[in-house]
Every structure is written in C-alpha cells, then in structure tokens.
Backbone:
C-alpha cells in the first residue's frame, strides 16, 4: 500500500511545460514543505498531455532539477495525460495499491509540515474520511471580508512580505488550534487529506455524487483542521469546484469568529510560551459556564489543592445551545482560556454521544496526561466524559440530568419523577425554564443512557450532604449499587470573630444573595412587609429583583457585592440573624456556610441541605415554607435574644470545614500515580484569577481595547441564533465598515 501526493493543476495544465514558472514554483514549495516528501509518490494529472514517452522522461528530469528533489528516482513521479476536472477524475486514475491521498491544487500554498498535521488528526478515529485545512481568505475562516491584519490579503505570486505574513498567521493558528478540528460537511477540493477508509468509500461511490455525501453514506465524517492555514495565490487555482466550496463553507463562518478575532488582533495564544515541567499529577474538572455555586466550588477546590494540577473544561454557549464550544482553563475564574474548541453541532443540553466532544477529550487526556476526572456538570457536555476509562467522580451540585428543572421541585419537593410526572412538569412547572426544546421521550432516553453509563464505567457519586444522595437514589433506584460518598464542601474563608450584632436594639436581619423564584422571592414578598414592622432588613447582593421591596420602610438594598466582600458587608451591618427562604432543595448553599462561618445564626426554610446542616435551636433555626411560620419564628427570636446568643456561641465553637480537609477527602476517592519529575510536559496558562469577563493585554492602548471590545460585541450578536437574520446581517455590515475604517486610519 502506498501514499500519494497529488499536485492538481486542473484544466489549466493542458500543454504546460516545466517553463511555467508560477506552477513549478508552487510545486517546489509544496515538496519543500512536505515532511514525508521523500517517501511519497507524486502524482501530476494533466501534465503529460501531448507528450511522447521520451518527452515525459525529459520533463521529469527537468522538473526534478527545478524543485530540488530527485523525482525520477524509483519511479516516484507519475504524470498522467488526463486533465483533472475534480477529485473524482483524480481518484479514477489512481492504481488500486494507493491507500492514502493528499491533494493540493496549483495556486495553493501549504506551510512546513502540513502533511504531518493532517495525518496526526487522522489517527484519532477510524470514522474520519477526509480532513481539510483552513485557507486564508476562504470560508469558513474568512467571514466574507477577509482578515484585517497581519498579511490577510491574498498572498500574490509568492511575494516575500505576504509569505512572511501568511506564515506568521499559520504559526498563530497552529498554536491556537493545536490539534483541534471541526466536523463539517465540506471538503476543500484544493487541499485535503483522504484516509484509507475515505478513499475506499469514494472509490466505491458514484463519481457524480458529492464526495461529502459519499463519505456520510459510508458512515464517515469530514473534518476541518484548525491547526493548519493554507493560502491562495492570485491568478491561480480558480475553478468551479472552489466556487462551490466557498458557497458551502460560508454557512459555517460564524463558528470561527473567535479565531478570526485572534488573528485580526495579531495576538499570540494566551498561554505562557515557556513549557512547564510538572511533577504533580493532573486531574480534569468538567463544568458549565454559568458560575454560581458550582464555579465557586471548583475555584475553592483548586485553591485548596496544592499537590495536583487541576484543569477545568467548561461548556460555552447560549440559551438553547449550551455547548457551542469547549474551553480549557487553569481554574474556573482564570482568564483567558488555555485552549478553545468549537463543536460542529452544538450540544443543546447533554449529548448521549458526540464524536467532536470525544476527540477533544482524547486530546486533553493525552496531551496533559490526565489521571482522573471530576464531573461537576453535564450541561453542554456529552456522556462521553464517563467513557474515558479513567477513575471519575460525579459531584452532585444539582439534580440534573434526572431533573430537567435542576432543583427537584414541582409544586412541592419531588419524591419521584416517572413518565407521567415528567410530562406534567414539562407542561406546567414554572421552574422548567432552562431546557425547553426536547420532547419527554428525549429526556427518558437521556436518563436511561445516564444510568447505564454510570453503571458501566468506573464512576463514584459524591454529594455534599446526605439528603442529596438519598434523593438521587430515590429517583434513580438503579444507582443503589453505585459507589457513593458524602463529602461536605469546604470554605476558603479566613478565620474571623463573630460578625453578629449584640443582643440589644432593633432586630437586624440580613438576606444575602440574588433573589429569584427558587430562592423564595414570592415568599419574601409576603414576609418582608410584616417583618419590617419590628426589624430592619438588609438585602445584600439581591440584584434587580430586590427593587420590588424598595418602597417598604425598614428594607435596605445593596444590589451587588463582589465575591470576597461579604465579610466587610457583614462587619458593617452586624446583623442579629440571617434569613434564607429557598423553596427548592438546595444541595449545599454557600450563603448558609458564609453566615455560619461568621457566627451569624440563620433562619432557613425546612428543605434540602438546610435540614442537613442546621440543628434547630442549636446551630440555627428551621421553619416551614409559609409566610406565617417565617414571621412567627422571627418574632419569637426578636424576643429571645438569649436563644440567638446561644446559637452564636455554638457557631463560634464549631471548627470550620477547610478546603484542605475537603480536597483530602476527594483525593482518597481519586487516587493517582506519582509523576516522575519532568514527565508531564505541557503549556501552562496564567494562574491568576481575573475578575474581568474579557481579557485585555495590559500593554494595549485604551483605543485598542475599546475597539476590540466593540468588535467582540458585534461578532457576538452577529453569530447569535436568537437574533433575526436581518439584524445579524446589518450588524455584520457595520463590523466590516469598522474594519475598513480602522485599516484606512492605520494607513
């Protein structure tokens, strides 16, 4: 079996000779940049048209001399009289012994080692039929107007300056894309790699059928490599096949907006250029990008883990498509990401299986030598996270994916959820607001697949409190035999004396955190007017929802506070008691942990983890889920300041749950092998935690930063499926106008 490199000159090769400088120069560059040129057979369709056998031999000798490679040796060059009119023509003339084909059209330039990059991706999966690279100025990399910086125009007839700019961009693409790829139903006819299975499928198919369709019908996939950037020369390579490809590939240009932005700005990848050798084992966290308690926990875990390297793979998306891309981080809050992958088909909620996702996982596990996986969320992810073969922990931060409303509440706390209740929940539960595009049968299939994959793989369930474990087992009795442990969350808070108020004065009540239906907003609407008659109430971090209480005397609003500032807020307020009115069974509640840490007694509704973590009358107080019970208990505490003082004393005596203790418990469940010093070699990203949502190079001018942000905003809205097409089109035109104006100003 042999590999073939086909240099396709197309119909223009008719009657060409070795004196055609542009064509020969393209071939010379192709061979000099092909890593396996000395072990591959070169195929030149159309070059021998009208030549005698002797003229063909003379042609080969002269061409060998011009390109600097002995092509005539061992018959490693073959010229064929048939003029190529496309991929089908090329394949029809190849001998049966050929097992792999790399096609490059005249007028298209490839960077050094291009073949190695494509072939490395082909090894990932037996279902890969063909791989196409990106091309400068051609979709899907180009958005219709061309890249705006660093040699983004067509490279011309091998112009030296343009060549340098193109190769600079290729190096950026190679670093940003690494071995990433997209599964797209397109095949770049001017440069592609056909695997053995792809070649076999195309040979057996109808020649008049679209090659991509042939591959799909054979069960194979077409990929676009994001680690390779080719370029087109002016005046060469024009063909009907290229025009058809551009029309097809343009549909997917929005998927690469992030890469266009990075190339436009000319920034190197946001990773440390120095490779770091680590003697610590690596474990991977799987998370969504919603923030909240889950993000808090992941950051705390990493902060408390000094003996392992922790990486975080987050799903990034928008409403209805929660897994549009995957981003790898050095911690949950760290910016910018280490790596980014776009998924060809966005994951709406959770995929039962996904080829792109599986490839990303394989890449991360291999490159970073991951030894264990900690799954904190499946939102925007695939069940493939459990199929890695590595020891895996599933941390129950909510009740998804069994519960489509996350919080396991429909009219009341859910004790079961069979098919009938599931359908009623999807129809009538106001809490079912996140995942609304699927039918009940889809959720039943996901539930069954979820249970099955947990049973068939090395997975251990971890919950922060006992009630969560019991609820999971009640709703999914098939998991009764699944290994499971309760590990309370730790808190990364510094030691502090009690911040609770003294026993005298008007009762001061603090309600921390954003208000929502799940957090008891409607219950508070009934409670606060009555409570304000004998207490001062402070809503801190309530968000805009707190405005409904702004007209009540005695109610004070602090709309926002940053994470880490709660200590200063509580120190200023000195509240006597905290109030938490969640209606849903929370799996932990960081606000409860923070209030207890600072010695503030808490009144909480009798639901979820509150029941696990509060010993009524000793470490806090529990009340029923109705306004009368809440007000009655608060009035009783107002008259029993000694009771509040007793609870405050118990909280001060209770040793806090530390991050070190929590991490140690997790390490016992997820043992890893020691790593020899220098064994784990990878590019490490910045370890700082950033409050900013967008990373800005500190060396950038204000004007550059403002332009980048405005451009990002436009790209964001033009790629949003939730906006009307006419609005996306208008904003896209605005973006292109800004690019042209920026270019004119720079010139």
Residues:
């Amino acid at each position: 079996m042999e590999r073939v490199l086909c240099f396709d000159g197309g119909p223009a090769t008719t009657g060409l000779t070795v004196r055609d400088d542009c064509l020969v120069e393209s071939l010379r560059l192709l061979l000099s940049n092909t890593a396996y040129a000395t072990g591959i057979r070169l195929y030149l369709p159309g070059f021998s048209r009208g030549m005698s056998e002797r003229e063909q031999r003379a042609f080969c000798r002269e061409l060998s001399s011009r390109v600097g490679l002995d092509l005539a040796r061992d018959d490693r060059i073959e010229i064929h009289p048939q003029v190529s009119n496309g991929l089908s023509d090329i394949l029809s003339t190849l001998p049966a012994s050929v097992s792999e084909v790399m096609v490059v059209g005249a007028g298209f330039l490839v960077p050094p080692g291009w073949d190695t990059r494509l072939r490395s991706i082909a090894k990932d999966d037996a279902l890969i039929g063909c791989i196409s690279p990106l091309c400068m100025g051609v979709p899907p990399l180009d958005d219709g107007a061309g890249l705006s910086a660093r040699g983004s125009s067509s490279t011309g007839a091998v112009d030296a300056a343009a060549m340098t700019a193109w190769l600079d961009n290729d190096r950026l693409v190679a670093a940003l894309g690494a071995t990433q790829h997209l599964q797209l139903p397109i095949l770049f006819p001017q440069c592609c790699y056909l695997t053995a299975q792809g070649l076999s499928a195309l040979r057996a198919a109808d020649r008049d059928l679209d090659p991509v369709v042939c591959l799909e019908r054979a069960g194979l996939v077409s990929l676009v490599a994001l680690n390779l950037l080719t370029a087109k020369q002016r005046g060469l390579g024009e063909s009907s096949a290229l025009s058809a490809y551009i029309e097809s590939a343009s549909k997917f240009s929005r998927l690469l907006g992030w890469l266009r932005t990075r190339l436009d700005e000319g920034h190197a990848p946001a990773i440390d250029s120095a490779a770091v050798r680590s003697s610590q084992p690596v474990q991977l966290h799987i998370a969504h990008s919603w923030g909240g308690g889950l993000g808090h926990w992941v950051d705390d875990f990493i902060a408390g883990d000094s003996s392992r390297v922790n990486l975080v793979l987050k799903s990034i998306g928008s409403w209805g498509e929660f897994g549009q891309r995957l981003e790898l981080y050095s911690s949950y809050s760290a910016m910018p990401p280490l790596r980014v992958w776009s998924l060809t088909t966005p994951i709406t909620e959770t995929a039962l299986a996904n080829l792109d996702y599986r490839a990303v996982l394989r890449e991360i596990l291999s490159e970073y030598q991951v030894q264990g996986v900690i799954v904190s969320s499946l939102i925007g992810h695939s069940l493939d996270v459990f199929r890695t073969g590595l020891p895996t922990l599933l941390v129950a931060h909510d009740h998804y994916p069994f519960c489509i409303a996350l919080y396991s509440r429909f009219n009341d706390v859910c004790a079961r959820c069979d098919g009938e209740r599931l359908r009623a929940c999807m129809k009538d539960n106001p809490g079912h607001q996140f995942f609304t595009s699927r039918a009940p049968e889809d959720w039943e299939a996901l539930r069954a697949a979820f249970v099955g994959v947990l049973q068939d793989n090395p997975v251990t369930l971890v919950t922060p409190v006992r009630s969560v474990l019991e609820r999971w087992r009640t709703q999914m009795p098939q998991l009764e035999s699944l290994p499971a442990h309760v590990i309370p969350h730790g808190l990364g808070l510094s030691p502090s004396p009690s911040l609770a108020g003294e026993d005298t004065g008007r009762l001061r009540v603090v309600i921390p955190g954003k208000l929502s239906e799940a957090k008891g907003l409607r219950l508070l609407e009934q409670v606060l007017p009555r409570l304000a008659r004998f207490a001062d109430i402070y809503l801190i971090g309530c968000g805009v929802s707190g405005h409904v209480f702004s007209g009540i005397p005695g109610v004070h609003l602090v709309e926002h506070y940053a994470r880490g500032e709660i200590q200063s807020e509580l120190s200023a307020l000195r509240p006597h008691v905290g109030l938490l009115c969640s209606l849903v069974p929370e799996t932990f509640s960081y606000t409860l942990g923070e209030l207890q840490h600072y010695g503030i007694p808490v009144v909480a509704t009798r639901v979820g983890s509150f029941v696990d973590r509060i010993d009524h009358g000793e470490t806090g107080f529990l009340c029923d889920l109705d306004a009368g019970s809440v007000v009655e208990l608060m009035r009783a505490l107002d008259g029993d300041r000694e009771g509040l003082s007793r609870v405050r004393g118990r909280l001060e005596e209770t040793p806090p749950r530390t991050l070190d203790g929590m991490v140690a418990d997790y390490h016992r469940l997820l043992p890893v092998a020691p790593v020899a010093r220098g064994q784990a070699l990878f590019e490490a990203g910045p370890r700082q935690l950033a409050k900013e949502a967008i990373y800005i190079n500190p060396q950038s001018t204000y004007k550059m930063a403002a332009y980048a942000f405005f451009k990002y905003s436009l790209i964001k809205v033009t790629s949003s499926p939730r906006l009307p097409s006419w609005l996306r089109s208008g904003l896209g035109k605005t973006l292109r106008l800004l690019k042209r104006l920026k270019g004119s100003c720079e010139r």
About this structure: Residues 725-746 form the longest helix (22 residues). The chain has a mean pLDDT of 78.
